[in-house]
Amino acid sequence: MSTSTETGSILRQPKAVWAVAFACVVAFMGIGLVDPILPAIASELQATPTETVMLFTSYLVITGIAMFFTSWISSRIGAKRTLLAGLALIVVFATAAGFSGDIESVIGFRAGWGLGNALFISTALATIVGAAAGGTSSAIILYEAALGLGLAIGPLLGGLLGSISWRGPFFGTAALMAVGFIAILTLLRPNSDAARPTPTRLSAPFRALARPALGLLAAAAVFYNFGFFVLLAYTPFALVPLGVGDAIGLGLVFFGWGVAVAVTSVWVAPILTRRMPRTRVLWLVMPLLALDLLALALFIDSLPAVITGVIVGGMLLGVLNTVLTECVMEATDLPRSVASSAYSGVRFLGGAVAPPVATLLAEALSPSAPFVAGAVAVLVSVAIVILGRKQLRAADGVHEPAAAEALREAEAIGIGDAS
């Protein structure tokens, strides 16, 4: 669990860590950037809601699949080159998306954007955890703060630029990512890669999921991320009938959501994990997220209720993002890059399913149906965590006896040698 010592050092970091954190902010901006312009894109490019939310799905599917291979790549070419390759791809594909003339092209270029995102995000987490001062918990809080700040600024910037043209947010992201590229190129020195890990096997992330703790957390993340992206990707369409369909209005709503994510990830999550085990925090907060989604379903016709539900959802998501990431990093003795690749790959694939399923449910059943589905998915996630509590003891800082751990490592080596 977090300690006061670790938390106190969060702002005293090497310049290289701040360079990666800045680029993380811009990378995570890309997730929420398109939220305020979804209705505008649907209108300008004559696309249905389901076609439009494929901007999320193509991005997340490619991100998720590529995540499984990022540790293999970064362990061979180094973290710095991997980060720069990811940023360069985002710049190229974000620019191409801005020049697109039809929805199919934008969806395709968002997929390429997702490839760059995968190379960058997975490697960035491992880089920050490895280089940050103050221990793992402080590093993860810094990473989650970058996530929250990016999620907050993304919709606001998307709304501001989107009020000029739906193409504006794509060009804006490309420009900011170019700045991030320069920052990492100049501040992340070659000696930052001095402790480059031993090259990992291509199959390492897939084998990692066979570890009970990581497999359980990844399964929980699939359902949790379904609820996450129902809230993020479907809500803009739910707000349009309530009178909030312009880019600025949607941008402000999701700016509030992102600020809530940032505040609770940095300040509330550490307070909770200092007072109780990480898994218990998940048991308590996940059901609250399910209740929030159900409230959105019940009060779908009330603008104040929907906006309140979005902000409250952001507060809960901030806590859960941080605690789940800490659990993944502490639950096994795997290299952090491998654990991050395996967990993130499954997590993003879970999120990719949510946007089109949500819009199809809305069309087939009712506007409230996606939120009900999201609530059910989150409840499945908490059930997985509760039922797997014995396997997740290490995530709470409870480690196996030395003999048992040695036996487990010997078995893992035997399995590896046999392959």
Automatic annotation (TrEMBL):
Membrane topology: Multi-pass membrane protein
Pfam families to which the protein is assigned, alphabetical: MFS_1
Organism, scientific name: Microterricola gilva
GO molecular function, one term: transmembrane transporter activity
InterPro entries noted in UniProt: MFS, MFS_dom, MFS_trans_sf, Tet-R_TetA/multi-R_MdtG-like, YfmO-like
Subcellular location as annotated: Cell membrane
Superkingdom field: Bacteria
GO cellular component annotations of the record: plasma membrane
Listed name of the protein: Putative MFS family arabinose efflux permease
